[in-house]
Amino acid sequence: MFCTQCGKEIIDDAKFCGHCGAPLEATDQKTLQEPNVVLSTTSPMPIQVAASVAQIRPWVRYWARMFDLYLISIVSGIAISILYPGAFSEQNSDQFDQLFGLAVFFAWVFIESLFLSTTGTTPGKWLFKIRLIPPSGETADYSTAFSRSFKVWWLGFGIGFPLVSFITLLVSYNKLTKNGITRWDRDSGFTVTHERIGPLRVIFAIAFFVSFLLLAAIGSTIDIEQIIPADTTSWQV
């Protein structure tokens, strides 16, 4: 037999999975014998998912979130550069970059909640073929989505502080690989499923991240005021 939560083989008369601890008493025997079928244990009604790919994919989830954060960073950076060209100047660079990064992390809590409560996904989750299923089985309401996003920001990324973030990410990685679910998904009742990403999406994601790093490197060597004058009165003809 196989565990419906983590997919690992277990003994026939087991009541709990020895790998992830998931209860097995009320699970259909036929399903237990099929390793490529996963049942959700976090939503009110069981959700059967064809597991053509591994369903525990912490790195895929990480890069999907990084895609979202980098994307919102680009949009926010362009907007701030237009409204306040001196913000990214060399004399303000270090302090402003740190504040900007923390602000983007926090702002994404609200933006992601809006995405999840309206479209049910985010650009990064869509690109990496990650499906987020709320307890109701339909699109989550804003408060439920916000609760999950806030816990990801707080428990998963340590509000964006580098050292704290490294520790919280490591702890979350270990819990996901060991238990098959993160704390924020368990608390909010969400089920996360994965599908095959495909080569075109992988190529696009790599191109995006490489382009972002190149833009960041170029931006660090160019004073934005050389492109957009800080004195907006100079725009007048």
Give your account of this protein's structure.
The chain is mainly α and 237 residues long. It has one domain. The chain contains eight helices and four strands. The protein has helices at 29-32, 58-83, 93-118, 123-127, 142-156, 162-179, 183-188, 199-221; strands at residues 37-39, 48-50, 130-133, 191-194. It has a two-stranded antiparallel ribbon with strand order 1-2. The chain has a two-stranded antiparallel sheet with strand order 3-4. The longest helix has 26 residues, at 58-83. The protein starts with 28 loop residues before the first helix and ends in a 16-residue tail after the last helix. Residues 26-35, 37-45 and 232-237 have low confidence and may be disordered. It is a multi-pass membrane protein. Residues 58-173 form the RDD domain. One of its GO terms (cellular component) is plasma membrane.
Overall structural class, as computed from helix and strand content, comes to mainly alpha
> Mind describing the biggest β-sheet?
2 strands, antiparallel
Describe the strand arrangement of the main beta sheet, using strand numbers. 1-2
The structural domain count equals 1
Q: Would you list the SSEs in sequence order as H and E? A: HEEHHHEHHHEH
Q: What is the overall shape?
A: elongated
Radius of gyration: 22 Å
The proportion of residues forming helix, as a percent range, comes to 40-55%
- Name the assembly state: single chain
Low-pLDDT stretches? 26-35, 37-45, 232-237
What is the β-strand count?
4
| Fraction of residues in β-strands | 5-15%
Termini separation (Å)? 77 Å
Mean pLDDT: 80
Number of helices: 8
